[in-house]
Design goal:
This protein is mainly α. It is built from 3 helices and no strands.
Length: 80
């Protein structure tokens, strides 16, 4: 369920970054902030469990950043 949510957020951010590049930064940072909280909470578990619990949040945060930057980059390459 979380995977579907992250994919949906990435798609929405990519579309938003393509059509309104400046206004897409705030939702992107907010999403990354929320995922960072999850990562920090997961990393408090001891040892290997901490890395396992925080990894999905870290990779999701990277995906959100990539989708936003890809939308802005695609907008910059458009000829109009």
């Amino acid at each position: 369920m979380m995977v579907v949510g992250i994919v949906a957020v990435c798609i929405v951010l990519a579309v938003l970054a393509f059509f309104v590049p400046r206004l897409s930064r705030h939702p992107e940072r907010g999403t990354q902030r929320g995922l960072g909280l999850g990562s920090r909470a997961g990393s408090k578990a001891p040892g290997v469990l901490g890395r396992l619990f925080s990894k999905p949040f870290r990779s999701s945060s990277k995906a959100v950043g990539r989708s936003g930057s890809a939308g802005r980059r695609a907008r910059g390459r458009m000829p109009f």
